[in-house]
Fold this protein.
Amino acid sequence: MKKDKIIYWTTTTIIFLFEGVMPALTFRTAMAKEGIKHLGYPEYFGNALAIFKILGALTLIIPQIPKRIKEWAYTGFAFDFLFASISYFAVEGIVFASFVPFIFLGILALSYIYHHKINE
């Protein structure tokens, strides 16, 4: 059980940092705005995406949030990673950046699996 909790909290913390803290600190920067623009999205989409990422990350990291809401956060992040990869493939082609979201999708999947293991 201890190993399961370590895996869960490690993977969930990685998602929290990548999808919650990083967007909170960077979504208003010129580089973030240029990244959204480069992928063909309007600036307001980047702002909305950052807000939902922050809320989703908080949902995953706060233990008192009901399981049903956590399920929606996991689903939202899965779509986020899939569509990020699709966007990179469409704009950049087959480059490393196109595959990075799949790495985080794998980390998210581990968090999801171990969330259910420790909450059975």
User: Anything to note?
Assistant: The chain has a mean pLDDT of 91. The longest helix spans residues 67-92. The chain has one domain: 2-118. Residues 2-118 form one domain.
